[in-house]
Write a structure and sequence with these properties.
103 residues, mainly alpha, Helix Hairpins, 5 helices, globular
Length: 103
């Protein structure tokens, strides 16, 4: 089974939520890294998984990179209309300030 990076978030790869603390992320990374290290794991995709875990951890451990990644995830969800309710709310909010809207 090949890991499809675009279908899993870095949070899911590490097994934590988006609200995880830095300590929780570090502990989850260390646990997964031990599990999927190519010298220990016999899975054919262990090396690929290990690289993904390293990329996920390097992104999530840095506050700036993590913030940018979270913004990227939100933008992706808006594109896929996962958060349709929020999009409708934003349109209605913007509509209230439209110059054509005269009360």
């Amino acid at each position: 089974m090949k890991i499809d990076e675009h279908k899993k978030t870095y949070y899911a790869l590490l097994g934590v939520t988006a609200r995880a603390t830095q300590d929780e992320i570090r502990l989850a990374y260390r646990r997964k890294a031990r599990e999927f290290h190519p010298d220990v794991c016999n899975r054919f995709d262990a090396e690929e998984m290990f690289k993904l875990l390293n990329r996920a951890y390097s992104t999530l451990k840095d506050e700036t990179k993590r913030r940018e990644y979270n913004e990227f995830l939100m933008a992706e969800m808006f594109q896929k209309e996962v958060v349709e309710t929020s999009k409708r709310h934003i349109r209605e909010f913007r509509g209230a300030f439209d110059s054509n809207n005269k009360d």
